[in-house]
Amino acid sequence: MPTSARLILGGIRAAGAVSPRLAGRLALRLFFTTAPRMAVRGSDLATHRDAQRGRIPIRGTEIAAYRWGRGERAVLLMHGWQGRASQFAPLVRELVTEGFRVVSFDAPAHGDSAGRSTDLRDWVTAAEQLQRSDGPFHAIVGHSFGGLAALTAARTTVPASRVAVIAGASAPTAFLAEFSRTLRLEPAVAARFEQRFGARFGLDPEGIAAAYDAVQNPLPSGTELLVVHDRVDRRMPDADALRLHAAHAGRSHLLRTEGFGHNRVLQADPVLDAVVAFTGAGIAGITTSEPQVATAP
């Protein structure tokens, strides 16, 4: 945790006993902290450099966009909070080999993009912009917070016949609850924090659910879903992912891994195989219709 974040966390704990309102405001500030920026891993560098690059405008700033391959069918990849597009490098290579054209971006204040702040709406806006230039999208794949963005985009303005959510959740409330649990926020502080989150979007809890909850408001009936989650994911436990899978019964496939965690799951061979098969042929392309478990070697 960077020094600035540690200072904010100290302020939250000091303020909590006397002013839950102030502590809730500080918690929201920490929740939306994007630093430190993730560097490109050495093993991903060649794929990162191989991309055709562009810039797209988001809320008065420009963000980095990436394109690989020349296939007719386009796939959009959406990274998570404090992530970047290069995390998908193993998947990019697999999809391009299978003949897909792959599109991604670094959200504002992430990766190689400009900006100092961002939220879920910027992910969706980026998807909309890329749909106009590179769509329609055959599939959307999202990791962690990007999984929520993928669900939101596919439910609203960026239709796709297939959506894959890796280490993600169905709604903002899952991320808020996990943040409050991790920081051990007092109930009064957690309540203020969630209220301020809704106020940032101009929505009450019912409005947040209507706009961003893919369990209460599932994907369109013609969209298939792949849910991938590690049993011991310490950053986002899998309970909400299981709810998401259940809410799309009959058109969702569940792959539960064990031992890959929150980020390494993106490089796991069973996950890459499942995402590529699903992207190509939907649930029918995966060898079994039953939930699977893949264990790290």
TrEMBL record:
It comes from Microbacterium azadirachtae. Residues 75-221 form the AB hydrolase-1 domain. It holds the Pfam family Abhydrolase_6. It comes from the Bacteria. Keywords: Hydrolase. The keyword Signal does not apply. This is Alpha/beta hydrolase family protein. InterPro entries: AB_hydrolase_1, AB_hydrolase_fold, Carboxylesterase_BioH. Signal peptide: none annotated. GO terms for molecular function: hydrolase activity.
